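Researcher: Structure prediction, please.
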Amino acid sequence: MTQATAERFSVGPWEFDLTPTGDLAHVSYAGIEVARGIQFVVRDDAWGTIVGDRDVRVTRRSDREVVVEMRSRHDFPSGAVEATTRIRVGGDRLRYSADAVVDGAVETNRVGLVVLHPLTQAGAEVDLTHAEGTRSRSRFPEHVSPHQPWSAITGLALDVADGCRLHIALEGDVFETEDQRNWSDASFKTYSRPLALPYPYRLEAGEWVRQAVDLRVTGIRATGAVDAAADPFGPFAIRSDRSAPRPRPSLGVQLGPRDADLGADEVRSRVERLGVDHVRVDVVCENGGARGLDQLDACEDLPVELALHLEDDSDAALRAVRERLARRRAALRAVLVFSLRASVTSGGAVALVRRALADQLSGAVVVVGTDDNLAELGRGEPDPADADEVTFSLTPQVHDGFERSIIETTEAVPAMIDTARRLGGGRPVGIGALTLRPRRSLYRQGHRIDRLDRDPESVDPRQHDEFAASWLLATLAALAAEGVSRVTALEVSGPRGVTDAGTARLTPSGEVIAAVAASATIGTPILDLRAGLVALPVESGTLVGDLSGRARHGEVDGVDIDLSPYAVRLVTPFSAPDPKASS
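Model: Predicted structure follows.
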C-alpha cells in the first residue's frame, strides 16, 4: 500500500514537487534546495492535521511560468475552514498565498502557511526582519534547539550557496521558527500564530485568514531550465565495508497492550524467532499499586527491559515490583525510569529505584530520560546522575505521514543523538521506543495519557508492508552509525507488531529485526537518500533496501539483484533473483 506520488515540475531555474494535497516539497533554484516544503495547514485542537477535501488544479503551465490553484474544505465537529490557495512560480520568484474563511465556528491550534527549511541550512547565518520593522542577525541551530530560535518575524534572508541569496517574505501574520528535529523531522519550520498565544483558539463564522509566503532568489542569473541530472534511481552498485566491524546496538521489541493475551508460550516462541536481546514491559506505579506487573508473566523466560513509570511516592509499588522480579528466571537487561507527572525522569527517582531493586539490578543498566519525543528531553533536561544511559522515543510521523518525509527523518538522527548525548553528560544513548506512528497523543488538552495503552491513531496501515521494513532498516542504519546503545522497536504482534497476529509469521519489518539481531557485529552502514538506498552489512550478508518507492536493479558485493519498490533483501554470496521484482 503506497501513497499517490507528487508531480515534479521544472520552471526555468525552479524545480519543485507538487503533492496531491497541494503542498510544495523539495523546492530548488538552479539545483540548490531553498525550501524543504511550503504548506497550507489546518490543525485540530490536538495538533492533528485535517487534510480535508482538496481540488488541486494546474491552471497555467509553460517553460516560464506555472500557476496552481487549490480549493479545499476542512471539516471540524462544529464547522469548517474553506480555503483557496494559489501558487505562482516564474522568473526569480515563487509565491504561495492562501485565503481561508470559516463556516460555522472551529477550535484550532493553527490555520495558515508554514515554510520548511532543509537541514543543509543548519548553522547558516540568517538576517531577520521583525514585526515592528527592526532587523537582527542569527543562525539556524546546529544542535537541536528545544525552544524557538527566533519569533515575531516577517522575513528571512540567507545565503544558500556562494553567490546565491534567498529572501523569504512572510505576510498576513507574525511568524516564528522551531527546530523540527525535536520530533525527528528533517527540517526547521517557520509558522504563524506564535505558540506563546493561547491554544486551541476559536475562529468564528465568517472570519478570514489571509497569508502569503514569497520566495525570491538573487545572485544567480536565471538563464533557463536546470540541466537534467542523471537519474539518481538508476542502476546501483554497493560494496559493503566490514573492515572495522562494530557491535550492533542491543535490539528489542515492546510487549504491546494485547500481546500478553497470546500466552507465555506463544510470546516466547515469537520472540525467539525474532532473536532479539530483550522484550520491553511497562509498569505504572501509582496510587500505591503497580499496574502492568501481570505482563511480566508473559515474559517469564525472556530477558526484559523494564520501563517503570513512577509517581513521587512509589515505595509501596516498587516493593510489589521487587517481589515479582524476584520470581523471574530470565535476566533483567535494563530498567528505564520515567516520571508520570513530568516529561523527564524526576530528581531522586533513580536513587529510589536503586534502593528498592538493589538485589535485582545486577547486570542491568539503569536509564533516565523521557518516554516521549526528544523535545521533552531537551526541555526537561533530566539529571543523569546515578544513571548509566539516557533515552528518548523516536517516531517519524508527529507532523507528516508522506512516505518520502518519513524516510527523510533519518537525516535528523545524527543531530538528535548528539543532542541527547550532550544532555546525558556523555552517557550512551538508547531509543526507548521506535514506532512508525506515535503511540499516544501528547498534546491534546485534557487528554489523559495511559502509559500502558495506545491511542487509536497509533496504527499505520503500512505497518505490515515492505515500506515499513524499508523505513525501519534506514532508521536502524542511521542509529547504528551514531553508535546508539540500544533500540526497542515496534511490538511483538498485532497492528503495530512484527509478527502476524494469527499466523505468527514474521512481517517484513520482523524479517529486518531478525536479520540484524542474528548478527553480533555489523559493518559500516550505508544510507544514501539521494540515491534512495540503504545497506547494512551483517554477518550473514548485506541487508539492502530501496528508499525511493521505485523498482530498481543493481549489484551488491558482486551479486546482481532486483528490488521492487521499498523492498528489503538480505543479499548473500548465493542470493537468487527476487521473484517479486518481476511479478
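Model: The radius of gyration is 25 Å.
Researcher: Thanks, that helps.
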